[in-house]
Amino acid sequence: MDLMKAIVCSKYGPPEVLRIESCERPIPKDNEVLIKIYATSVTNSDIFIRSSKVRPLMLIPFRIMIGITKPRNKIIGQVFAGVIERVGNGIRKFSVGDKVYGLTGFSLGAYADYKTMKEVNSKQGCFSLMPRNIGFEEATSAAYGGLLALQFLEKKNIGKGTRVLIYGASSTSGIFALQFAKHLGAEVTCVCRENKFEFVQSLGADKVIDYSKDESIAQLEHYNLIFDCVGKARKSNLRNECMNHITNKTDFISIDDEALLLSSERLVRIKNLVEEKIVEPINGKIFRFDQIVEAHKYVELGHKIGNVAIVVNSET
Description:
The protein is of the alpha/beta class and 316 residues long. The chain is 26% helix and 25% strand. The chain starts with a strand and ends in a 5-residue tail after the last strand.
């Protein structure tokens, strides 16, 4: 039996429940590829899965989907970038040696050396060739932030002069949304903490607002689109007031308005945006594999900039 290292979550709880173990390496079926993972990310979704801290109304559905007393798959993690090491006989789109990136969906399992994936999109995940001009750690940022941002922004008519407000602009999805909206010609106002103003301005923000100060409410203008990139669970007086600064309430959108769609076609579009240098994926911090507890603690604080990547394997 071939083994691999993996980070396992044997019960719901604080970051300390995570530990590194040797686990059986998966074997790809005819319709699967085996991916050697070089990088993963710690996302807010990972925090919810590990802790099981969700809104009360969501607790029962969450436990049914993920696991009653512990995660059904003890190896959690949803974002990955790596290299295809083996392909099943039925695989047509990919070859050994391809660099790929994607999400594992409900199958989880990205916190490990290896993961098997089907090349067909499903709730169990999606992947595509990763951008050629970035590394594995940056690719995890592109996959997660890009899928979240484009799922909502591609539905909207954003063009030259469109006034867009991005709440949580320094988050993984916010960074992608900011750059994408600027590319389309929008005037973008970014909401974040004051210590992140310079960062979002370096990415093209036209105006900046500090959500933590009530006096900032007076800076709000009228917007064609408001995109909440932190989710409804995090509230502020400024966020509540935003609803009064948009004509059509359907143009106030949040990343948790609907489930994330796992689309390899969208990953291809993200790849093109990154390769054309329209969007730059950004990691605020990168942790080693054995620093997973520290990484979860850091993300759980809620003040990160960009993506938080984990190095699973190093390129030789």
